[in-house]
Amino acid sequence: MFSGWTIILISLAYLGLLFAIAYYGDSTRKGRSYAANPVIYSLSLAVYCSSWTFYGAVGRAASSGWEFLATYLGPVLVFIFGWRILEKMILVSKEQNITSIADFVSSRYGKSQSLAVLVTLIAVLGTIPYIALQLKAVAISYDALAPAASDALSKGNDTALFVALLMAVFAILFGTRHIDATEHHEGMVLAVAFESIIKLTAFISVGLFVTFNVFEGLDDMLFNLANQLSYNENFGSLLKGSFLTETLLACGAVLCLPRQFHVTIVENTDVANLRTARWLFPLYLVALAAFVLPISVAGFMVFGSQSLDTDTFVLMLPLAADYKALATLAFIGGLSASTSMVIVASVTLATMVCNDIVMPLLLRTPRLKLAENKDLGGLLLQVRRITIVCLLLLAYFYYRILGDRGSLASFGLLAFVAAIQFLPAILGGIYWKRGARYGALAGLAGGFSLWIYTLVIPTLIDASLMSDTLLPAVAAAGGWLAPTDLLGLRSSLGLDPLTHGVIWSLAVNLGLYVLVSHYSGSRLVDRIQASAFVDVYSKELQDPSRHYSQVTVGDLQILAERFLGAARVQQAFAGFASQHSEKPPLSGDKATPQLVQFTERLLAGAIGASSARIVLASVLRGKEMQIGDVVTIVDEASKALRFNRSLLQSTIEHVTQGISVVDQQLRLVAWNRRYLEMFKYPEGLICVGRPIEEIFRYNAQQGEYGPGDIEELVTQRMNSQVSHAPHLYERHRPDGTVLEILGNPMPNGGFVTTYADITNHKRTEAALRESEQNVRTYTDNVPILIAYLDPQRRFLFVNKAYADAFGIDRHHVQGLAYEAVLSKAVASSRNHYIEQVLHGQRVRFESVMPSQIPTDSPRYAEVTYIPHFDGEHQVVGYFTLYQDITERRIAEMALKETNETLEERVRDRTQALSTVNRELRKENTIRALIEDELRQAKAEAEAANLGKTRFLAAASHDLLQPLNAARLFTSALAQQSHDQSTHQLVENLDSSLKAAEELITTLLDISKLDAGALVANVTDFSISTMLTNLSTEFSLLAAEKQLQLHWCNSQQVVASDQALLRRILQNFLSNAIRYTQHGKVLLGCRRRGDRLRIEVWDTGVGIAPDKLGEVFEEFKRIDNPRHSQVKGLGLGLAITERIARILGHPIDVRSWPGKGTTFSIEVPFGDPAKAIRHKTEQRGWIRSKGLNGVRVLVIDNEPKILEGMRALLQGWSCETLTALSVEEVKNQLNGTDFEPDIILADFHLGETYTGLMALEAMQPLWSKPVPAVIITADRTDSVSEEIARQGAQRLSKPIKPAALRAMINKLIAGEKGEKQADSFKP
């Protein structure tokens, strides 16, 4: 178990990492580009997988069978078969600038505010149970990991409250740091995608742990699953229970959950990303669902009938096996699942509540005068933050009131049913044009009411929060209006409560939506929005050219005359023909595309562009339109125009520039407050309809246009308006300020002019020019050539020396290409230097000094490229410096010339060395004699070494007995409660004993090899199985060091001893992982003639060439500072070398210091016909119920061993009987009914008496065969075979408590397996 503060610190560190990722995604361009990646988008969709799927799915599988699968199946079906729905929703959202699901529904039905409020209320009430689910998941996982801390908390505090407040803080940090008009949160998407990877990794890690630690591999797991599916009644037909209902809910939830809508629709940056998500998101769900059933079955096997919450199996299984690191990873995975859902859901709901409820109310409150506030961003952020805190507190109170009334899945299903009420309005909105605003309101209100009546009220009654006496008599139990059996539907069809509630709420919702929509009228805005949503793929309204061939000139004339009159239309059509040099068109002629567009512009001048487009599109499609319909359109278009004018005025009031707008008659029609403030016009001068000429004259009189004749100045400005040409210029005003004036003509006549005060900009510009002049002055007086270029290798600055040397004009250098200054050959030779500096590296090299003045001898320069970084550490350019080093080069050449005179002295020295060599030959003769003596001494040393080896073998064997007792005592001591210091002493003692055990075991192996006691059992077998097992065994070790373990499979058959060859490869892989700090490890094979070479490559620190021969020596470790960080005895490769000699397999080692090392062994090919086939071991179904009350008999001739075993077994709640001999067993059993469930016996009970003999002698004492375990330090094959013949199990000394407990569990469960399996039969 963990301390509470440890879990809190881990959680805070992880949440801090998420915030760093989100900050990176929001604040950097590269982070935002990552968020737009299709893979990141697909992973962010896994926000769907909350703690319900991480914890609750396992609990659901344990209690309800196949129903857990519906949660995963629904989204998979939608993304595989219904992805067009998502695509259409995304396209609509992009066109309509949708920011939430409430915005989507209200926009479809005429931008209805009441509908947005209703959707928001349903979303909030439906999501609160879901957020409460996350709080419960984090709380129970925290309590499972730190029960002592949770007990302390329960006395005065509350885990869930702390979790709620902490999540509120992080939701505020993630989603309300700033306001984004598009409601895109790239950082949040990046963080959610990262969390998706973490929770998938954590869940799969627990699944692999279950497969290979709780079960005995994949075959054993599948066998147990098959038994569970066969005998457990919950795993019957998929169609029973609420499976189909939950599948429907999951399909709808992936479309309707507010958080899922936000991530899938709003955060989508490119609809093409959906094509990647179509397969990647379902694949993610399949991977997550794959281990749900194995973890559930493993939970029953380990915990049996213990009163343990099945939702915590994911955490408790690693904890039960003392895998604390894996339990921590599982906790972080569950925390990821919860935080991602809470953060996205709370941010989404806060946006909806703020935009659709709070802000409209505040803006409509006259006393607040918010409409006059220019900046509401701060208020929006405060409202959203307060909303997030309130939502989390509501979810907390829901959890406190109803948290113990159901599982995680029940909370989630309640939220799903609320969210699915949006489905009729959404699907009807994008596929049925007749769907109307009142229909959506009626459907949502009816469905939501039935959700409350049929599902929420029964939940409150079950929780004793509401008395059923408050309901009328007809709604009481058995009544025809009973919430759980409305109109007797449930009892007549045999429905479960969930299906009953879903059918009623959805049926009423859909029925009211269709009926009310059919009989209610629709406004123009409703019809326009319906077409925009339903016809998002169609281009009819946007592209009427496809119908040009169906309309005549007469049709267009009749249409235009209804609005403009016959005379004006005739004149306009004649003018059109004259402009195009054509004859006036006849009524029966087909209308050209140009004439259609001209008619549309003609109508737009009278009824507006939008109404003109609608009317014209109706004619082009051949639909008859009555004049009454046209009048209605015109009336509503006029209202829209008035609204747009008001909106335009509100918009330009918030622009910092002054704005004035004149119409075709050059009359003022619009302006903003800033325009008035700039020119200080007298009251009454500025009004709608005022001729712009009068305003120009007033400005001229005030001196705005400078000196000159006033009428001439006015005429110049009027000509610029009449010319209909855009203009841009600066005006220096009498008060010293400077205005930038930009005028742009409007398409139908008129002018828009903006006035920007750029006084500060001009002053800054002047200061920059002065600063640039100072920089030029400084650099021109430095005796170095200086230039600055941008990343595209274009010059931005050169000093005078550089310009003179290269012969360029420094005043026109900006934008000059690098290749235009240097020759092509020189530029090409420097490309790799420039690539380095653009990657942030400082580069220095030598070159010839450039010069435009001819000289007798060349001059040399040292060239330096220096990168220039911006605030985000991105290279934005680089400096080029040339420094004259001619004098230094001359000195170097002089030194070189001096060195050449040394050759004569070298020849003299060589002659002297020849004389010395002759003396060395004499010395070599003497050394040969000495070597003979050394060989004789070596032979004597080897003989002594053999004696030492035999002594070590015997001594090590005797040491195992007391070491075994010590390990038993420390294991028993570790199970008891101690203070922190005592607990640390126990851990240190256990660690020391483990180290001693490893040393003695290794010495035994070496002594056994040196004594020749080991005989190889060579067989033919496929190397594939061994490689697969090794990769599985070492993958987790590599992952713990953040290394990548790659392996290449091979189907070759080899001839070797499987156990010994596996031992060699295990040593190779263990060393590779141990001495590799980062990078990867590779396991693979190569053919070498008639042999197969098996190699292990690593990217570790490597071994010096002169040290390669020492790696196979005992207690020898290479003297490398980085090796000192790694624990080891230096015996592994010594054992490997001896085993290889026995097998006759040559081994080899190659190394590259600093890059890595390769160990290899060559094995001869075997005969495929003789290859051993792997047989799957068939096991009975195991279902362990723990060791509580298990009766154990222990026989050993060492009293200390018996004391240690008794302490250890009693710590496991076993009933223990210990004895030194069979006679003592009989004496202790006399007059008792004690009959053991298992016997643990030492092999050597005397000089000639063995534990197997004792078992045979005690057999008549028992009423049935009793499983037995023989414990021995003798590791020979003969002893193992003798134990196996007697039907007993074998454990080696010193005993590992985990191995002993697993063996007892296995034997006890196997004895009771058949009885427990029968209990599952119906």
UniProtKB/TrEMBL annotation:
Superkingdom assignment: Bacteria
PROSITE patterns, A to Z: HIS_KIN, NA_SOLUT_SYMP_3, PAC, PAS, RESPONSE_REGULATORY
Histidine kinase domain location: 954-1167
Subcellular location(s) of the protein: Membrane
Keyword hit for Phosphoprotein: yes
InterPro entries: CheY-like_superfamily (IPR011006), HATPase_C_sf (IPR036890), HATPase_dom (IPR003594), His_kinase_dom (IPR005467), HisK_dim/P_dom (IPR003661), HisK_dim/P_sf (IPR036097), Na/Glc_symporter_sf (IPR038377), Na/solute_symporter (IPR001734)
Record carries keyword Kinase: yes
Domain PAS: 771-841
Protein name per its UniProtKB record: histidine kinase
